């Protein structure tokens, strides 16, 4: 609770200092300097907005590519695409309906002991 109080005090002091500072600048600075500084600030804001928008777009694309790479690495051979499973679940299909396990006869067996019952994928 004490920290929250001091954060609030800091915010109030900052607002007061900024407002009073602007009044002093308007009173004593030449008009053309204030206008020039405002123009530069506007340009800097536009560049910052452009940078943030570009960064967000590139981040979204990179995140989607990395997600696709990780999904491809994690899926077992023959496992359906997770998007297809989600779509089937959204249609009301039961959770395992989209994935069909291969038949036991199709699975490779341990070559040293074919009767062991273990399958190696």
TrEMBL record:
Biased composition (Low complexity): 84-98
Composition bias, Acidic residues: 104-115
Region entry Disordered, spans: 84-121
Source superkingdom: Bacteria
Name of the molecule in the record: Secreted protein
């Amino acid at each position: 609770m004490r920290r929250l109080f001091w954060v609030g005090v800091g915010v109030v002091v900052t607002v007061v200092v900024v407002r009073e500072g602007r009044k002093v600048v308007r009173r004593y600075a030449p008009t053309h300097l204030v206008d020039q500084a405002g123009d530069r600030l506007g340009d800097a804001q536009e560049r910052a907005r452009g940078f943030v928008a570009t960064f967000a777009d590139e981040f979204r694309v990179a995140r989607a590519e990395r997600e696709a790479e990780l999904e491809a690495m994690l899926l077992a051979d023959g496992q359906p695409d997770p998007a297809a499973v989600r779509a089937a679940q959204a249609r009301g299909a039961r959770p395992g309906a989209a994935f069909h396990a291969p038949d036991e006869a199709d699975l490779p067996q341990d070559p040293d002991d074919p009767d062991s019952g273990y399958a190696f994928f």
